[in-house]
Amino acid sequence: xxxxxxxxxxxxxxxxxxxxxxxxxxxxxxxxxxxxxxxxxxxxxxxxxxxxxxxxxxxxxxxxxxxxxxxxxxxxxxxxxxxxxxxxxxxxxxxxxxxxxxxxxxxxxxxxxxxxxxxxxxxxxxxxxxxxxxxxxxxxxxxxxxxxxxxxxxxxxxxxxxxxxxxxxxxxxxxxxxxxxxxxxxxxxxxxxxxxxxxxxxxxxxxxxxxxxxxxxxxxxxxxxxxxxxxxxxxxxxxxxxxxxxx
Amino acid sequence: xxxxxxxxxxxxxxxxxxxxxxxxxxxxxxxxxxxxxxxxxxxxxxxxxxxxxxxxxxxxxxxxxxxxxxxxxxxxxxxxxxxxxxxxxxxxxxxxxxxxxxxxxxxxxxxxxxxxxxxxxxxxxxxxxxxxxxxxxxxxxxxxxxxxxxxxxxxxxxxxxxxxxxxxxxxxxxxxxxxxxxxxxxxxxxxxxxxxxxxxxxxxxxxxxxxxxxxxxxxxxxxxxxxxxxxxxxxxxxxxxxxxxxx
Amino acid sequence: xxxxxxxxxxxxxxxxxxxxxxxxxxxxxxxxxxxxxxxxxxxxxxxxxxxxxxxxxxxxxxxxxxxxxxxxxxxxxxxxxxxxxxxxxxxxxxxxxxxxxxxxxxxxxxxxxxxxxxxxxxxxxxxxxxxxxxxxxxxxxxxxxxxxxxxxxxxxxxxxxxxxxxxxxxxxxxxxxxxxxxxxxxxxxxxxxxxxxxxxxxxxxxxxxxxxxxxxxxxxxxxxxxxxxxxxxxxxxxxxxxxxxxx
Amino acid sequence: xxxxxxxxxxxxxxxxxxxxxxxxxxxxxxxxxxxxxxxxxxxxxxxxxxxxxxxxxxxxxxxxxxxxxxxxxxxxxxxxxxxxxxxxxxxxxxxxxxxxxxxxxxxxxxxxxxxxxxxxxxxxxxxxxxxxxxxxxxxxxxxxxxxxxxxxxxxxxxxxxxxxxxxxxxxxxxxxxxxxxxxxxxxxxxxxxxxxxxxxxxxxxxxxxxxxxxxxxxxxxxxxxxxxxxxxxxxxxxxxxxxxxxx
Lengths: 247, 247, 247, 247
Description:
4 copies of one chain form a homotetramer. With 247 residues, chain A is of the alpha/beta class. Chain A contains 6 helices and 7 strands; from the N terminus they run βαβαβαβαβαβαβ. The first copy, chain A, has a 7-stranded parallel sheet, sandwiched between helices. The longest helix of chain A is centred in the middle third of the chain and has 31 residues, at 105-135. Chain A binds chain D through residues 64, 99-101, 103, 105, 108-109, 112, 116-117, 120-121, 123-124, 127-128, 151, 154-160, 163-172, 174-176, 178-180, and chain D through 64, 99-101, 103, 105, 108-109, 112, 116-117, 120-121, 123-124, 127-128, 154-160, 163-172, 174-176, 178-180.
């Protein structure tokens, strides 16, 4: 008999991360990782009060000891043998749109530290749990899903601090897909190409219809769909954009 | 009130096309297009006897008058105002793996005639029906989906007659996605990267587990998933491959 | 001793084709292919009167018998054993920027006939001569170079009739590069991404500096450079654009 | 009158970096950056004794103060107003081919620190000098060239520590090309796809002809060619591989 599998979501801000966590919480206990408690507490409360199970752990994905500590807490909560059905990497560093020669070093390196090194730490921490999920014959292939952006495939002027990390993360996801697919773990990369419809973007694109923004619930459905694909039909990459988007 | 919408599938051989048609037949009357009646008759019979509705029409997608004739027959059957919920282009010409200097002209041009020109004819014939589907407020955004292959993104030695048509078809799908997305039609391209598990490939990859081949039912699920994406979250392209595939 | 090698240029309009022909004419006798004599005659005259050697042959690259006839004439002129140092495919069909549903069938198919099928005929006709160039120990590796465009890698709305042929041609060039590189023929694809500075574009981009357009002589230098790369260092693809171009 | 412009090469190991430095030293005084004096001293001596001018500076590109110190030394040597005609980033971190779960954190981060952060520091340090080169009306557009690899466009299993940095560097180069092209600086990325023929690879690919490896002198010629392209015809990316390479 398989023990209960969990889902882990890193980067649970108010948009994609929260929606994805809610979606996966309908099936799995979810672990919410964010740097600050205020990012995960309301969501954990919401999920727990709706009959799901969620715990939050303050974690800086850019810091390996912080990520190791999170894994330790997960094991304390769910047992040393806990397996994962899904691990979602949705974290992003604080990049800046800026003329390159005015870009501070710390903005460049911290963006890279979250996207690239954070992706590395998160993958090294969760893949052993996902492989446990394979052993424990999870219903759906255990899934490691990375959130990408337009800047994952296109590197525009003034956007070097964002694109470098995102390209690195996409490279990581492709290498992992090739290594861990044959071991039964489904690694995917999602190119989110457009503005997501969240509180922060409320004032953006005024005059455009509501459908001009990506729905976070729609994105969560797409992540869930990727998760349910059988081992015969794995998708590495999908792009997502509003129908009216110019691209 | 919206009238009944249909799904149209071109290229209903024994693999992807048939599975996709069965999947969409659970919701829509389906029109099966193939050059020869023996390709669609057993499938039409099967769908009709299972409570669905299917008609087959002998059609050469490479020939514009044949495609126009198919549209005429569709209108005779379903009414002049018929709208489409989905149109799936799954046809492929008879390419040949061959040293380039030994490749006969007619192999090259007939492959191109099906993949590229056939894709053009099929799109021009079905887009007006898909736009009718938009007007008639179809439940899911009307979808035009093209079947691609590894050779749609990689053009290997000896494969020029296959890759040229497939790259052209991918270009067509991208241009149409950009033009018709804003009009409410969801245009997608699916990169099928691996061997599909059908009768014809039964003897291939002996010694490998069954999971080393793509499941046609899995592919059909993926097409259906693309079809059900809302206008806020359109995917243009997904790749599909067995977990154990090397790529 | 090696006999004299020739260069063959298909599509010698007033821009890239003519400049490339002039450049290669400084080293090789050149064969100019175009549908109409008025496209090659002034250029042939110019080259011949400047001490070079050029002949023009009326050729429709979309028509295999026309291309075979051109090869026949080349052999009559230069001998049955003639080898080629370079073959440049610079032809383009008459596409149209158009809403897809208003695009006439003949525009779509004729664009494809030149770019894709024309590329096929030209390659089948010239590769045997290029392989002769290898045998005859040409100074530089015999080169087959295809002219691409922005639309070779990006398929925009309303541009389906151009992009399909250009993507097909790019696929052809990649497959040929992989097959014939090991045989000593250098196959390249050039993505010309911008407006070329020729008579026809004189009125375009008014108010922009002259440097906002690609120089045809510059393009010719790039083709020549590709031609001179040694077998240890072949480039398949380069992109070319004005420094000020937005991309 | 323009003052003398320099070329700066980071990463002058025994292969590409040294060849590129030799090539550019024929025209410009060159600055050789490497972590250890033994990497640049013999080369500096060789260039100086052959009538060129070279200075070496011990520099860790991953460390911003080390890079700033190098710029300081360059100004002491060549004057505060010194402009650069070329800056070549050829450094690579010490990656490891390894199962992902056995990859040490420091290998991952140090590879990234050189390729991505090193690329950032080098670009921020040299772009002001390259822009000075533009002001001083350099004969050829000042050029910032990055050395990429197969792993810059393809991220294979077990290669995550190399590919992440290389993809990030490619993203950086694309963003800079778009920002600084319009300012007259030519930014390029070279995908070196194959084994380079140097001392270290002498025992590799035994039984293959010498031409199966990339010539470092050939690569240097390609960099020089990119450098000489006029502002009307900039190439962002070229790939380089031996004619016999499988790809």
